[in-house]
Amino acid sequence: MTPRTMDDAAKVLADPTAYADDARLHAALAHLRANEPVAWVDNPPYRPFWAITKHADIMAIERANDLFLSEPRPLLATAAADDYMAAQMEAGMGIRTLIHMDDPHHRKVRAIGADWFRPKAMRDLKIRVDELARRYVDRMRDIGPECDFVTDIAVQFPLYVIMSLLGLPEEDYGRMHSLTQEMFGGDDDEYKRGVSPEDQMAVLLDFFTYFAKLTASRRENPTDDLASAIANGKIDGEPMSDIDTASYYVIVASAGHDTTKDAISGGLLALIENQDELARLRDNLDLMPTAVEEMIRWTTPVKEFMRTAAEDTTVRGVPIAKGENVYLAYVSGNRDEEIFDEPFRFDIARDPNRHVSFGYGVHFCLGAALARMEMNSLFTELVPRLESIELTGEPELAATTFVGGLKHLPIRYSLR
Ligand code: HEM
Predict the structure, then answer these.
(1) Which of 50, 156, 327, 375 has the least C-beta neighbours within 10 A?
(2) CB atoms within 10 A of CB 16
(3) What is the Cα 391 distance to its own chain's centre?
(4) Considering only CA atoms, which residue is closest to atom 34 of ligand 1?
């Protein structure tokens, strides 16, 4: 193997605290895009990987899903956590969601829930989502003139939507909320249950126990919701395994919640920090679809996914050996100067906006249309009613390498 040197900037990608410091993260990524777009990162306690920071390379790797596989390392975790998960998998107890799978199995499992995220299902759900958006903006008015927008509003609304789609009872929403935070905020002191892989596994087991009961009940009494579609889903004519079933709920409940919360709260912060853009949106609500897209690019709630090379190959001329991992730096792809005009400008009318926040290719976010609709409903309700809005403290980002955004957004506002 050729000797490898590591650019200091590359280390930040394997440093959770860097993700809580936008300036530090973006400075390092801009440096890598310009100087070492395929960079070797060896920063324990993580196993080494190649950081891919150019938009075109991220897309090309995602497109080549036979060459760059999701198994066995779909995302960045510590070596100890990777080993623990592998041992659990060997023992038949591991989580295996869509993001862990490769085709052809992935395609079959994805098809089970896919209808619930298509445009027709979205149209049916829109009335409910609009209703919830109004409810949360009313709540914001009622608790005003100050609130923590993240904990009071942005966390609640998408959770409510996804739980409605799944068909879960309202009294369970709180429990789902803390479980998703514990799962995704693995590195952040405010969210984590504990540092060890065993602690993280305990979170998963709690999810599994809850969903095992749900599966049994939906198999006995199917209802018209996504939970029933998952519980009764078949692969090649056979019911899904217990692990695949439970994993499906886990991915929908978790992916459908924290991600959208991050895009909503980071989107509002961008509007507060760019009052001219807020005024422009208020005066022209037709810009809402491009504004939502820009918020999703701007915030990039999912920081990364990883792939493993199935064969020796190259990226941008750099040799990648079979079995090595590539880290797809979505945050970097979304600020790539070669793709975006003035990437560091928040422009609610940006068009085209070929961001990679939802990934690309066969794993393209299943809930993208839902996330867009939720954000559209919420901001369409909020923006025209907002007479003024300002920060009352420092917004705080979560220290996590995977899914993350604002933990707190203290604001003062006047709302009709
Ligand atoms: C702004 C909000 C969201 C963002 C930024 C986001 C981002 C992503 C990304 C980057 C991926 C991986 C794509 C890839 O590997 O190419 C993904 C996959 C996925 N997302 Fe989302 N997501 C969001 C909202 C949602 C919602 C609301 C749901 C609803 C359930 C959802 C469900 C999923 C599922 C099930 C997958 C796995 C798809 C697969 O592997 O085939 N996401 N998402």
Answers:
(1) 156
(2) 19
(3) 25
(4) 366
- Does the reported pTM lie above 0.90? yes
For ligand 1, the distance from its centroid to the CA atom of residue 100, given in whole angstroms, is: 13
How far away, in angstroms, is 370 Cα from ligand 1 center?
A: 10
Q: What is the mean pLDDT of residues 49-57?
A: 98
Q: Going by DSSP bridges, is the β-strand pair 325-329/386-391 parallel, antiparallel, or unpaired?
A: unpaired
Q: How far is the CA of 402 from the centre of ligand 1 (A)?
A: 12
Ligand 1 atom 32 nearest Cα? 367
Radius of gyration of the chain (CA): 21
Q: 226: closest CA among 164, 284, 274?
A: 164
- 23-50 pLDDT, tens digit per residue, is 999 999 999 999 999 999 999 999 999 9
The angle at the Cα of 98, spanning 232 to 128, to the nearest 5 degrees, equals 65
Q: Where in the chain is the domain with CATH 1.10.630.10?
A: 64-312+364-388
Provide the pLDDT confidence category of residue 3 given band limits of 50, 70 and 90. Answer: low
The CATH number of the domain covering residues in 64-312+364-388? 1.10.630.10
Residues 165 and 121: their CA atoms lie apart, in Å, by: 10
Measured by CA distance, the residue closest to atom 16 of ligand 1 is 359
Q: Is 155 in the pocket of ligand 1 (CB under 6 A)?
A: no
Which residue among 58, 259, 374, 406 is best mutated to probe the pocket of ligand 1, counting the most ligand atoms within 8 A of its Cβ?
259
